[in-house]
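Example 316, ligand DTB.
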Amino acid sequence: MDDVRHDWSREELATLFALPFADLIFQAQTIHRRHFAPNEVQISTLLSIKTGGCPEDCGYCSQSASHETGLKASKLMDVSAVVADAKNAKQAGATRFCMGAAWRSPKDKDLDAVCEMVSEVKSLGMETCVTLGMLTPQQASKLRDAGLDYYNHNIDTSPEYYEQIITTRTFQDRLDTLEAVRAAGIHVCSGGIVGMGENEADRIGMIHALCTLPQHPESVPINMLMRVEGTKLADAESINALDFVRTIAVARIAMPKSFVRLSAGREYMSDEAQALCFLAGANSIFYGEKLLTTPNPEAHKDRQLLARLGITAMVP
Ligand code: SAM
Ligand code: DTB
Ligand code: SF4
């Protein structure tokens, strides 16, 4: 059954959010089982290949030069060090390696080094993903030619709430890069962050923007804000676990064939809350003790949790 739609209205998504919890989860689980093996998750590991000193002012981010977070800025890593990290991630069980850089957009010289990282990590037999900020169509084509599988570029929040969070670029800038990535034939990874003081209408607006794209992102990360001391959002009102699970469920229903990633924030979630996220259709996680600059559950804890839930790692 083809239940993939691109004509969702915000009202329809609002109706889903308002369902009794069990009805929402039942719908999400039904759709999940139609398209995916229900007890498998895709496993990615992150590495910050260029940390801090970013000229953008994203209110949530530890790496923005506008924030005093005590984070030490560093240069782009050497290709050999990145490959060594990727080998460790593969050994630990990750099948995708995601490399993130704190750039507004890559310089051409830096892009050449990233292309080298992509082709070397790919030759280890891993899927590759990078997130480097805004791209021109030419830069996207270069990454494609290097063999890049996924490009991560989040829309972060609703179009309406966007300028409360970021003033150095527009929502449309994000859409333009997503279009360049799609046109180059690279898989799109795009999602957002909740727990930034947004309301339910913003969560609806964020999912609406994703599920009405001409093609849904293959991967949709839903991050719970990691509140970082020194950022504008250090004291943002957190989202409760059940509202977070609802956000995952609505994303699953609205984008039936996409991987929905339970992303940042697992470090502070109970096992039970994570289990509900999987039940709501999340089928991808970041694995390994660190996200980019903030903590993630220890690998042994995750192995234990997945084993207790009878969930296995997906083989791509
Ligand atoms: N600089 C590039 C960009 O912003 O597109 C790539 C790296 S950036 C750190 C990647 C994504 O991480 C952001 O778009 C945002 O969605 C997410 N992120 C950053 N800081 C976060 C935080 N404190 N909590 C949750 N997600 C966060
Ligand atoms: C995504 O959606 N989440 C990841 C990845 N894409 C690049 C990043 C999470 C970052 C959390 C904050 C940090 O560790 O700095
Ligand atoms: Fe820079 Fe990306 Fe952080 Fe924004 S989210 S400040 S663009 S590293």
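Summary: Residues 46, 62, 98, 100, 131, 152, 154, 191, 221, 223, 226, 263-264, 291-294 surround DTB (ligand 2) (CB under 6 Å).
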